[in-house]
Specification:
- The chain is 0% helix and 50% strand.
- It is mostly beta strands and 131 residues long.
- It has one domain (7-130): Jelly Rolls (Sandwich).
- Strands 1-5-8-2 form a four-stranded antiparallel beta sheet, with no helix packed on it.
- Strand 6 and strand 7 (85-89) form a beta hairpin.
Length: 131
């Protein structure tokens, strides 16, 4: 069973520039409009990389990894264009153990290519996921 998840960049006029931070948010606390969606699979110990470009007009970015199966565990790392690493994040990072990691990067994320590393932390067989 595949699940749909988005990497989202949000534009806002007059957004303030300040220190970049990634905050975990409840998976149901926002509406997402996806600009990029990838559905794929992962196995135990496997690493998959995903990228998205953030432009100067973006004031926030949501990284939403969804596999829906709470018996398996995936790990998420996020890298900004300068190479700074955020994570690891696990299923409970957003306050809910539901097979989903939903992160909000706000405070005007750095312009450039952001990378997400998904790691099969504890996977039995093959796990479908979307990001």
């Amino acid at each position: 069973m595949a699940f749909l998840v988005f990497l989202l960049c949000v534009s806002a006029a007059g957004a303030k520039s300040s220190e970049t931070a990634i905050d975990a948010v409840s998976s149901g606390s926002n509406e997402t409009i996806g600009i990029k969606s990838v559905t794929t699979t992962i196995t135990q110990g496997e690493v998959n990389w995903h990228t998205t470009y953030v432009s100067s007009s973006n004031s926030a970015m949501i990284v939403d990894l969804n596999w829906g199966d709470t018996t398996d565990s995936l790990q998420l790392y996020v890298y900004d264009p300068s190479g700074n690493s955020y994570g690891p994040y696990y299923d409970s990072a957003d306050g809910s153990n539901n097979g989903r990691i939903n992160l909000l990067l706000d405070n005007t994320p750095e312009v450039g290519t952001w990378r997400c590393k998904v790691y099969g932390y504890h996977v039995i067989g093959t796990e479908d996921y979307s990001i």
